[in-house]
Amino acid sequence: MARIQSDTLKELLKRALSTRSDEMGCETCYEKLDHFVELELEGKDAAQALPMIKRHLELCSGCTEEYKALLTAIKQFETDNPQS
Amino acid sequence: MKTSLAERTNADWLQALRADPSSEALEDLRAILLRGLRASLASRIDGDLETLTEDFAQDALLKILKNLDTFRGESRFTTWAQKIAIHIALSELRRRRWRDVPLQSFTQNAEGEELTPILLTDPLPQPDRAAAQNDLLRTVEELIFEELTERQRTAMLAILQDGLPLQVIAERMDTNPNALYKLLHDARQRLKQRMEEKTGLSAQELMSLFEAG
After folding, report:
1. Are residues B139 and B66 in contact, defined by beta-carbon separation less than 8 angstroms?
2. pTM of the model
3. Chain B residues touching residue A61 (CB < 8 angstroms)
4. Rounded to an integer, what distance in angstroms lies between the CA atom of residue B33 and that of residue B35?
5. Which end of chain B is less congested by CB atoms within 10 angstroms, N or C?
6. What are the beta bridge partners of residue B78?
7. DSSP class of residue B173?
8. How close are the terminal C-alpha atoms of chain B, in Å?
9. Given the DSSP bridges, would you call strands A2-3 and B106-107 parallel, antiparallel or unpaired?
10. Nearest CB to A38; choose among B75, B107, B137
11. Closest residue in chain A to residue B5, using alpha carbons only
12. pLDDT digits (tens, 9 = 90+) for A17-62
């Protein structure tokens, strides 16, 4: 049986206290992720346009990993295919 | 005349892939997926990057062709397609990376002592603030065992303490990430409500007390 570390308790408390009733799940985040990444690469404020995604990414390491990987992949595409 | 990749519109992509799945468009898309996967996975894979990315790209192409009707046009077609490829690749890599890490059961640290009520005065002297924060942590620990289900507790602590991704835990628990996110959201909401009830303070007051020190 494992013990709960105090850092874990602190993080859990912060997450619990900042819980909102209208949070977005992984599925919806995934649906909108391509749009979110493009807004960001266009220099627009993606977090302001799609704040629920930003909130979800703060809480979900798996979706954050996919978001960062997609950013890298799209940057590669734009390097390979510069818009004239 | 050949259309460059950047010039091909979403409609061009859809039309070409629907008309002939073995077309030049498919090979162009495969090349885009491969370049994207290599760029995004290079730092995550120790072994044979080429073989893995080719397998992931092939799986992604099949899925993309099968799901063309679900593309909603909110981004470039190639961005949508790359999202699918990344999801397939990272899902598999996560599975492999965390394969040998078990989900743990947790036990409570201390014997349940009477919890000291937290009184908010502003500003609290540092020693009092530290004591109040300690009380908060003890309270939340109590609530984790009193208020959460075994599944909620196990998943929450696997994420926060062991760093397991939610997607991996969902597979282990025979559920999907969306349902698990909902389960964890319910758990956080329950803890927030009970913290407010037990202390008589709002979430905002509790947060400021906690963050100040």
Report:
1. no
2. 0.85
3. 159, 163, 165-166
4. 6
5. N
6. none
7. T
8. 66
9. parallel
10. B75
11. A81
12. 999 998 999 999 999 999 999 999 999 998 888 999 999 999 899 9
